[in-house]
Design a protein that fits this description.
- The longest helix is centred in the last third of the chain and has 27 residues.
- The protein is an all-alpha fold.
- The chain has a single domain, classed as ADP-ribosylation/Crystallin J1 (ADP-ribosylglycohydrolase fold, Orthogonal Bundle).
- α1 runs antiparallel to α18 and α14 runs parallel beside α16.
- Bound molecules: magnesium ion (MG).
- The site of magnesium ion (MG) has 6 residues, from α3 and α16.
- The site of magnesium ion has 6 residues, from α3 and α16.
- One of its GO terms (molecular function) is metal ion binding.
- This is ADP-ribosylglycohydrolase.
- Its cofactor is Mg(2+).
- InterPro entries: ADP-ribosylglycohydrolase (IPR050792), Ribosyl_crysJ1 (IPR005502), Ribosyl_crysJ1_sf (IPR036705).
């Protein structure tokens, strides 16, 4: 059954948040190290069986607020997102990527939003783009423009932009055709992406991008598991934050389980590496197909967050849905921002404690005796 657009938006935002929180405790570990600690990820493991969201979800929420404020008008969107990124950066978000941090810093220095980004092909723009696809996938020109503006605030390497666009189109297809099979989804993704990139000047980098994506249908036809596909791409020790590593494995995990949130997200987490971001991307795509109800309830209630709580995320999604339905800008969803300061401090302490526990585990189990 197709969800209405608001339900797809709420599902995508929740999917991003839960994937991010589930993947965060395993970030930076190889699949082998992950298995040594836990045979299978089946729930939250950050603190006392609860999970918290990181920069991936926060940036998706900033994009949603910028869309509400701008009504999708690209100049206003760009300005609204730039201002939100600047304010968000003041809160010293733990785990923010280097290029995103530099982009925010350059915005504070007064750089124009069109040229504040740095030349990087990291996965920052892709982590915040599923929501763009769910909202504007029906209008490819507008989607391309919004993805470009969102990307260039922090990243200027065209590969970062193409990867973010592919993720946005995937989320649009998930929301609009939740019952489609993997080959159908791949075919349409390829078609829409070709259309969106038709005016892009041919280059060796673009050829490399297409060659990379061409490996997806091949892997599907060979019935490879995501783990086998990762090994095929030389990523058996984990998926890095380079977009050309993140993108094929996020898309493949979605294509293997387009209607199964739990499988898709745990599968990509089990591939190791940048697990909070890969799971946030896959979660944002599959969440748009299955809606909130398709995300396991214990994973939703296991989110430990405030002031961007689960109910706040739901309200944010509903407000964005209203803005799209009326095709007009609205005031942003109110957020009790002073609470972000203690929240971010607590989050930082928990992440640091997690790092020390990990180090302790490694000293006990891995040092030669
Ligand atoms: Mg993160």
């Amino acid at each position: 059954m197709n969800l209405d657009q608001t339900a797809a938006i709420v599902g995508s935002l929740w999917g991003t948040a839960v994937g991010d929180a589930l993947g965060l405790p395993w970030e930076g570990l190889s699949p082998r190290s992950q298995r040594q600690r836990i045979p299978q990820v089946q729930g939250h493991h950050l603190i006392l069986g609860r999970g918290m969201m990181s920069d991936d979800t926060e940036q998706s929420c900033l994009v949603a607020q910028a869309l509400i404020l701008s009504g999708g008008e690209s100049g206003r969107f760009s300005a609204a997102l730039a201002l939100r990124l600047k304010l968000w950066f003041l809160g010293l978000p733990a785990g923010v990527g280097k290029a995103t941090a530099l982009g925010c810093f350059r915005l504070w220095l007064g750089f124009n939003p069109d040229c504040s980004g740095v030349f990087s092909a990291g996965n920052g723009p892709a982590m915040r783009s599923p929501i763009l696809g769910v909202c504007y996938g029906h209008n490819l020109d507008q989607l391309r423009d919004l993805v470009r503006r969102s990307t260039r605030l922090t990243h200027t390497d065209p590969q970062a932009e193409w990867g973010a666009l592919a993720v946005a189109i995937a989320a649009h297809l998930a929301a609009s055709q939740p019952q489609a099979t993997a080959p159908q989804l791949w075919q349409q993704l390829q078609q829409l992406l070709q259309q969106a990139l038709a005016s892009t000047a041919p280059s060796a980098t673009l050829n490399q991008f297409w060659q990379l994506l061409d490996r997806l249908p091949l892997a599907l036809s060979q019935d490879l598991t995501p783990r086998q596909f990762a090994a095929d791409l030389g990523l058996s020790r984990g998926v890095s934050g380079y977009i050309n590593h993140t993108l094929p494995l996020a898309l493949y995990s979605w294509l293997c389980y387009p209607q199964d949130y739990a499988q898709a997200v745990t599968t990509v987490i089990h591939l190791g590496g940048d697990t909070d971001t890969t799971a946030a991307i896959v979660g944002g795509i599959v969440g748009a197909a299955v809606g909130v109800e398709g995300i396991p309830e214990p994973w939703r209630s296991g989110l430990w967050e405030w002031p961007r709580s689960g109910s706040w995320i739901t309200r944010l999604g509903h407000r964005l849905g209203r803005s799209l339905a009326t095709n007009s800008p609205l005031a942003p969803e109110p957020l009790f921002w002073p609470a972000l300061i203690p929240r971010n401090l607590i989050f930082l302490v928990i992440v640091l404690a997690h790092g020390f526990l990990r180090l302790g585990w490694w000293l006990v189990h891995c040092l030669p005796r």
